[in-house]
Protein 1
Amino acid sequence: MIFHEIYGCYYLCMEKIINHALNHTLTQDKILEIINQYAFEDSHIEIMSHLKNQDWPLITQDYHTPLHHPSTRPLTLLEKRWLKSLSLDPRIQLFSISFDNLDDIEPLFTNDDYLIYDQYLDGDCFDDELYIKNFQTILYALENQFILKVTYQNKQLICHPTKLEYSLKDNKFRLKTSHDHFHKTLNLSKITNCELTQQTAFQDNKLYQNKQSVILELYDERSALERAMMQFADLQKKAEQINDKTYRIELFYQKEDETELLIRILSFGPLLKVIEPQRFVQLIQERLKLQLSCGLR
C-alpha cells in the first residue's frame, strides 16, 4: 500500500472522536454522528463494538480519553512522491485541489512511465480553460442541487445534473442529466456554456424507480463480514448485528445490475443467505439449478 492505513476512514473517525473527548464534548450521539459523516453507513457496527469491548482502549465508558494530545498524521516521503505524481495528472486541475509543499519532491511516476494501450487518442482537453470552468460549474451543481442552463451543440438545455462519469477507454467525461422525466447524456467537450440557475434542483423520482433492494443474512466466519463490506462497497447498504456471528444486510442496487449482484452474492457460498424478496430467492435457486445441470460445482 502506498498510503498507510492510518489515513483510512476508521483512523480519521477515531481522530475526530478523540479530539471531542479531549474537549469534553463527546457523547454517544456525537460518536454516531462522526461515524456517519466520515466512515461508511455500516461502520458504526465495528467501531462501536471495538470501543465498547475496549479492543481500542482510547475512549473510556464515560466518554473521556487517556490521551493528552490530539493526534497528528505526517506524510512519509513515499506518500509525498505519490501525491506529486497525482498532481501531474491533467485531470486533477478539474477539481481545484491544491498540493502544497511538493515543489522539491520527485514524483513516484510520470505519465511517460505507463501506456494505456486500448485508449482512444481523441480524449477531452482537460487543460482547456472553458472545459475546466464548465466542469467545476457542473460539479458545484451536483454537490449543491442546482438546475443547469447548458449550451450543447448550439442548443439551449435546462437540465438537472444527476451524475458525472469518466470513461477510461474514451478518456472523456460525460454528464448524466434529467429534464421533464427524459434522460440525456452529454459529452463535456461539446458543452460550450454552462450556468447555474437560481432554482434548486428537483428530484426526479423516475431516476430511482429501477432501484431494488435485497436482504441478506451473513454468518461471520473466515472474515465473511469484512469481505462482504469490501465486495459490496460500491452499493448503498444498511447493516445490523443480530448476534455475535450473524448480521442482517440490506443492499440497494439498480435493476440492470441484478445479474452481476446475484453472482457476487453466490461467491460467498453458505455464509451469505438471501432472505427476501422471494423473487431474488428464486433467482438464486434457478442459478444454482443451472449450474448443476451444466455439471458445475
Note: The mean pLDDT is 86.
Protein 2
Amino acid sequence: MITIVTPVFNGEKFIESCLQTVIAQHCSDVEHWIIDGGSTDNTLSIVKNYADRYPHIRWISEADRGQSDAMNKGIQLAKGEILSFLNVDDYYESNVLNQVAELFKTLPEPSFVVGNCQIWNDHNQIIDINKPTKLRLLDLVVGINVNPYPCNPCAYFYHRSLHDQIGNYAIDDHHAMDLDFILRAVQVAHIKHVDQIWGNYRRIKGTKTFIAMADGSSDRRVRQLLKKYRQNLTPIEQIECLYWKLWAQFKSLYLRAIRKLFHIILNDPAR
C-alpha cells in the first residue's frame, strides 16, 4: 500500500483539488491521510464530505507544532509500506501511483525513489523542471548550483521503514525539513532516479516557502544544512567536494566575465 500524507492548515482554496488528484490516480492500494492543524476555514468540511464518499481518505484535526509535526503524525498513522507527502497545493502527474507501486516491487528495502518535478508560478506557467539525477550525499552537499536536490516531496517516494533507521522529520525545522530528511535518507537507502515527471509544485506568492526564498532565509538554512552534512563525508569525498565547489565558483566567474564582455562589445559607441 502507498500512504499519501497531506499536512494542512486553512487550505480551503486547494484541499479539494488535492483530494481529487489522488482520486484521479485510480490506484486501488492507497490511503490518503489529511493531517489538519485545526483549520478555522472550510477545509475540514470539504475533507469530511470527500471522506464520506471515498474510504481511502482518512483525516485527523488537532493543534500541532507546525508542518513537521503534522508530517510526523502522518508517518505514525500510515499503514502503507510506501510513503509520500503531498502538500495541499501540489499535484501528481497521471498514473504515477500505479507506476510507483509496480516499481517498488523490484526494489530493496529501504529505497528512496525520485522523479522529476515541474515548478509552476502564480500565472500557471512552468518556470523550471527539477531533475535531481545525482543523489549521493557527496553530490547533494556540493551545492545546489552544482547538483539540484529534490525540490518537493510530490516527486519522491520511499519505504516507510526508512524512518526506523534515520528518525522522523525535524520538528523544529519549518523550512528545510525535507532537505534535512533527504540528506539523512541517501546515506542509508537504495537510491534511484526515474527520468519522468511525477510531481507538480506550485510556487505561490505569500506561501511560507515563497516568503523564505524571497527574504533569503531559505537559502541560509540550505547552506547551513549542506555544511553540516559535509562533515559526514569521507576524507576522499571531502577533497572531491572541494574540487566541485571550486569548479562551480570558477564557472560562475567565467560566465559573469563573458556576459560582461558581451555587454561591453554590444554597447561600444565605436561600433
Note: The chain has a mean pLDDT of 91.
